[in-house]
Amino acid sequence: MSEFQSSWELYQQIPNDLDVEMEPMAPCPSFTDAANDFDRNIPRICGVCGDKATGFHFNAMTCEGCKGFFRRSMKRKAMFTCPFNGDCKITKDNRRHCQACRLKRCIDIGMMKEFILTDEEVQRKREMIMKRKEEEALKESLKPKLLEEQQKVIEMLLEAHRKTYDPTYSDFTQFRPPVRQESDKGRTSRSSSIMTPGFSFSDDSSDASSFSSEPTMLSSLELSDDSASMSIDFSHLSMLPHLADLVSYSIQKVIGFAKMIPGFRNLTAEDQIALLKSSAIEVIMLRSNQSFSLEDMSWTCGSNDFKYKISDVTQAGHNLDLLEPLVKFQISLKKLNLHEEEHVLLMAICILSPDRPGVQDTALVESIQDHLSQILQTYILCRHPPPGNRLLYPKMIQKLADLRSLNEEHSKQYRCLSFLPEHSMQLTPLVLEVFGNEIS
């Protein structure tokens, strides 16, 4: 079967009683007045017989039956005679009984033979309609569509995200409690140990252990003492234990998400670890955008105890070299108004970056990333309405470049913390493994 319908099939779709005459070139004043006074909420009634009208035909509101009757009568130049007294009341039921009075009624309500097209004009109109249908069919066929396989990948990523991201943030109560200096002077953390009693990674134990059971890639990272260039007051890091637990928890969720990305498990264990260790903080920054508020430039994760402002992050050891660009990034990403589908695709593309340090099979990683990128571009074209879709894909890819700079600064500041035993002991083993200096 051909891609498009044949001319005959398109012709068959055109109603036999085609109203090609209903568009007059210059309606008379009476028609214009009637149209202006017409209330679209009032039921349309045929001015000839009282049946349901279908629109203005030959300058008057009529039904399809009276429209066709008037056209045929004018074309045949029919001469009718009333068998009664010439004043028959035309209704839906008796309109066929007296053609003379029906035609008279048509003329009385303003129907005009000048509006009737010739056979040649009707044919041209039909050809125009058929051509327009063919153009619309061609346009529709050229419009990008999400393939079934692409839709399935999106659904898998959505499920992965929903399984690893809790919008209620209920697990945050298991972290070491947040201690804010401005409101809790004199308070100290309930525990200076690495984890509080009762908080564990049991639901993702395999994810957490994967970092210690597999060869680490920290040897490939160049560790340097950057403390001279940092301006952090290390004597007041009251929020460090809480945010260390939060980051450690988030890393595990990123691991869980990554394992459900189609194709990720096809990589070697070493490449999986290399990708996760390099991208974890970037994906955490992407995930945190869901809780970021443009109103007060804070991250709200449930109750006020878990509402994080810039001052909270500085009390965890981070300075403005990271925080200023981080907030700018969160603002610009929020303003893109990404769909959840676009958000999860961006996270997956971020993880599957072939240029991460330590990745061996770059060709396989690149092929998976290219496939995800193609799905994202197709989704934007098909599902993201304008004007938001304008240049959306390049803007999203630019966000990945911005994340690289944020990642570098974040890792540098965490390494600086890890060199100081009094602060490294507040970090979790997973955070030290991914970002910091391993302290025995």
UniProtKB/TrEMBL annotation:
Q: Where is the NR LBD domain?
A: 149-436
Ranges where the Nuclear receptor domain occurs: 43-118
Please give the InterPro entries that the UniProt record associates with this protein.
DBD_VDR, NHR-like_dom_sf, Nucl_hrmn_rcpt_lig-bd, Nuclear_hormone_rcpt_NR1, Nuclear_hrmn_rcpt, VitD_rcpt, Znf_hrmn_rcpt, Znf_NHR/GATA
Question: Keyword annotations for this protein?
Answer: Cytoplasm, DNA-binding, Metal-binding, Nucleus, Receptor, Transcription, Transcription regulation, Zinc, Zinc-finger
* GO terms for MF: nuclear receptor activity; vitamin D response element binding; zinc ion binding
UniProt entry tagged with the keyword Transmembrane helix: no
Compartments it resides in: Cytoplasm; Nucleus
Q: Name one Pfam family in it.
A: zf-C4
Question: What is this protein called in UniProt?
Answer: Vitamin D3 receptor isoform X1
Instruction: Tell me which Gene Ontology terms the entry assigns under biological process.
Output: cell differentiation; negative regulation of transcription by RNA polymerase II; positive regulation of transcription by RNA polymerase II
* Gene, per the UniProt record: VDR
Any Gene Ontology CC annotation: cytoplasm
Coiled coil is among the record's keywords: no
Q: Per the record, which residues fall in region Disordered?
A: 174-207
Family note: Belongs to the nuclear hormone receptor family. NR1 subfamily.
- Residue ranges annotated as coiled coil are none
User: According to the lineage, what is the superkingdom?
Assistant: Eukaryota
